[in-house]
Amino acid sequence: MKTNFIDRLAAVLILLVLIVLPIGGSYRSARAALDRHGGPLEAIDAYIQDQMKRLHIPGAALAIVQGDQVAYLRAYGVADSAGRAMSPQTPFMLASVSKSFTALATMQLVEEGRVNLDDPVQKYLDWFHVADEQASAQITVRQLLNQTSGLTETDGNRFNLDASLADDALVAQMKRLKSVKPGHLPGEAFEYSNLNYGLLGAIVERVSGQPFETYIQKNVFDRLNMTHSYTSLSEAQAGGMTAGFYPFFGIQVDYTRSMPYGRALTPWAGLFSSAEDMAHYLIAQLNDGVYSGNSVLSPAGMAALHEPGAKIDRWYGYGMGWWVGPFFDLASKGTSSFTVPILLYHEGSWANFRTIVILDPQKKTGLVLLMNTNDPAIDSSYGLVGWDVFSIYAGNEPSYYPPGEDFIRQHSRLVFAVVALLLLASLGGFFRKLRSWSRQTSAIPRRWKLLGYLLIPLAVDGFIVWFLLAVELPLAKATLAVLLRMAPDIGLLTLVVLLLAIIGGAARTVWMLRAFLARRRLERRSQAQPEGALVENPDQVMPE
What we know:
The protein is an alpha+beta fold. The chain is about 45% helix and about 10% strand. A hairpin with a 4-residue loop joins strand 15 and strand 16 (about 365-370). The longest helix has about 40 residues, at about 490-530.
């Protein structure tokens, strides 16, 4: 029996290792492929195709702009499980890249004199309240744009799960903030939160007098000739949107119907666009708000969007819908100086989509890379592909950055599966021991040994529950509900481990208390018998 269990356990572990190991991949084939090509565009193609194999990306689309021209436009792979070819016109979900559009819309209203950046939010949204009344009155429009309102990333991620498609979904969601307590005082610290851009979307709706989606379509998409861009999932699907794939236990599945989506998230994550259309958008960002003679914002307004209004650390800041910071891989050394380009960038990460946009305002170079999959265990790896492509275009070789996630997160499927199996094995061994005790009560150890049997496993169970709820989930800026929707396989394993630890710990405690009481009754009977007498029916002391 024990041998069979060990064999099965080993087989499961080997299978899990085979599922997880392809994540790491080999970099040698990519570098060899690059060595066979001379120009940066050929090298980019070779690199992307290799990374798509390594990261199991079904489809991707790339656009690179230089000045006011599209320098390169290319699509790779497939757009759905039926094998439809990807094209530069295929819409993708932009995820958090949507925030830069919301910032642009807000700044348009500022230039029209209809919004003041330093006004309190309550001037435009009289219903706006958070759980702190003083903060409610102090939060300004600028603080929303710069992510310094005090609202938290974890609360912002929780709001991703609302599935309402009602006309008032955005306002209804933002009114729920009255029960949300900020993590910081307004203006005190930077913390990235979707809620800031949800409120900005509501301000755009109130001030413009039209739905946020309508405003974006008329004032951004139409002006920039973005004909394959959409403000809702249903419209994007009707326009030929790519499916979004999720690597469920290592197997790519179409997750589009199951992914979190609701109308309220449009201002912070719910816009859709193609590589071709995003090239128009990048050209406007790099050329004072102008694309093909059409202006969406003044040069001063565009500069304000790009100015880092929030300082994150020595090197990095956040503007209005844009991260701002140096790209050290492109540093150039002079005779007495060391010049590092300061770039604008933003990444979008969803359960089944990954997006990255990078801008070099000095050289007027821009890049957008859209991918129709994501893996939360190695989320950073997908964005790092974009940085390598940008570096290759600049004439450098790719850096092949390692994932930014820690070991546990990178291998979370394997780690949690192993923990779950160990908990099951531990519980199985425990209940086998209980069965033997119920059949032969005299075999029950003395009470102090029983405490050891109880307290040590209980401490392990408690540590696992504490680690998941107090360490891992807060580090991921997520709740269990968010994890189950955004990373369903990892969320499922996390839930299984939690249930095994909690229910197993409770069952272990109850049965050990029964064994403890049975041992105590046995000892009392033994003491009550004359010396040399036998306990009558000792095996009936502990009921089965």
